[in-house]
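Entry 14. Structure prediction run on the chain below.
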Amino acid sequence: MQTILSPDSTFTSSNNSILQKKLQQKQPLKVIALGDSLVYGYGDFVGGGWVERIRRQWMSPVGEGHVLNNLGVRGDRTRQVSQRLKQEFNCRGELRNRVPDLILLSVGINDSARVGKLEGKLYTDFEDFKQQIAFLLDAAQSLCPILFIGMTPVNEAKMPFMDCLYYNHFDQYRYKEATLQACQQRNIPYLDIFDLWLSRGINWIDTQLGEDGLHPNVSGYQTLFADIMAWSYQQ
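Output returned:
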């Protein structure tokens, strides 16, 4: 078992040798976090979201020194993240001819929404989503190792979001499971935030979400940060 980016972390992707060596030698890594508004940190006016909280910890005097770039874009679905993946990756190595060592990937919640009404058309058709997430994972894994952070559950009673998007746990679960299975098939570590938060109860979840029912509040992002930092996985 390993906690996130500890010296004994292991990855089984085909291009892990440099990352593995740096981790073992406790060298700072170049990391990008790619995804939607949950990566961006929308709603956390105190800590800036889970990515920013990790960045601050890593660059503290007692931190690991890893360099972390937040590349979350509000509203992005899987297709949009795929479209900007390669360019974002190639521009974030800090030094000439260098590229990131690791991608923190989190996307899919926006794909699962229904448009216009409770039983409206899915924002991204489920079968299309399965193809899109497979394409994204394959493309990202060809660049460097990946850690996937799953979606948070919504507050269904607060829907619709922006008067038009209806999120619900049933569809969230389907899209989450499709992503989890795709990650498992590729030996990509996946943190199942959806199931973890549901295990704590609906009433608890509601205390972790903002007024829009979709994005975590300050407490929610602090919890998400803690869950990610405590994450251990076995491949």
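The mean pLDDT is 91.
Filed with the rest of this week's runs.
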